[in-house]
Amino acid sequence: MPHIVYICSRFITGGTEKYILNKAEWLVRNKGYKVSIISSGGEYESQIPSFIKHYKVQGIDEPPFIHRRKTRKQIYLEINRIVSQLNADIVETYEVYPVFYVFKAVRNVPVILNLLTEVGYHKNPIFRILTQFYSVKDLFFVLTNSSIEIINQTFLFKIKKYKVIPIPLEIKAELITSHKNYILSVARMSYDKMYVKSLISDFSKFILETQSSLDLVLVGDGELFSEVEKIVFLQNDFCQKRIHLIGKKYNDELQDLFKNCKIFVGMGTSLLNAAAYGKISIMATNDPKYQEFGIGIFGEHEDNDSFGQMNNFSKIHSFEYYLNYIENIDFQYNDIKEKSIEIINKRYNKEIINSNWHNEYSNTIKSHSSNSILGCFMYIVFDFVVTLILNTHIFWRRLKNKNYTD
Length: 406
Prior knowledge:
Layout: E1 3-7, H1 15-31, E2 34-39, E3 53-56, H2 69-85, E4 90-93, H3 96-105, E5 111-115, H4 125-136, E6 140-142, H5 145-151, E7 163-164, E8 182-186, H6 195-210, E9 215-219, H7 225-233, H8 237-240, E10 243-245, H9 251-260, E11 263-266, H10 268-275, E12 280-283, E13 293-294, E14 317-318, H11 319-327, H12 333-347, H13 350-367, H14 373-400
Helix pairs in contact: 2-3, 4-14, 6-11
């Protein structure tokens, strides 16, 4: 059976890492795959099962221009050595910096770019160029159609070839009608999840104006945790007492928080997790242009594919607006809860989605031809452009910083 290698920047406690492990375990148990992981390491390594081998390559979580030329070459050679040694049939990569190193290192094995977040395209021409490369090769995957809408805002030449495979949900959907009196948000406190700053401010306005008895519970940790704390401290004493920063939570404790909340605010897997319990879920986005706003309520519209898309500006409102809207007496709670469960069961079924991935991997392996004249020419062209951009960036860094060496 095929041997697949997943390559990500770090292996920390986050959505990408959980996604990789869940998919890998399903492929091993249900289809007999061999799976290996390459990353620069992290605390979530302890969760990797014994039947999945993990290889550390230092530096792939960092931008290429901070490394000296010798270090970059060592990273390329190490990735190439591991992939060759494993006799890998396919490589899948996810994030901004690993994509560059994989492009440089892996030539004779098909590489899939699986985009789990749109963050990284702004001010990153190399990532945009490489996305075009994998798109042209029909090896570019996204979670939703709205992902393409967001990233095409940063492209001169729009992405036209891509495939959509959503994140599978690991929990079983069930309608939970009981709740406690709090709003929940679960997110790593990083720059792409800074909708929480606006959520805190809007929540304060909401409870002051409506005298609502709801609390706000924020789950998560990360490099910007202290910034989020500062936003909480800027609220008045009455509001501060109603906002709870509780750090990381795991497993049953986290699921209990999902099951008991009245309203959820967030994005990605966390939002799907809440919606799977029939919770009213306000959708946030990591698109920098819209991070201050909610972009809709999951399950409110008939067209499942449209959820989260940015082209319907009638759905883009402040979080305060959505909280007032939900608390309105005419709000159709039951209809939306039932619709949420229906969407989850239809679009995010683990067995269906992972089976789709198995089919994609099989087709990619069968159709791959690394030595075609067109494929080689295309790689040379894209490699030239990527190298030119990198060297230009390094040149300007040298001009600005005389101590900079490559």
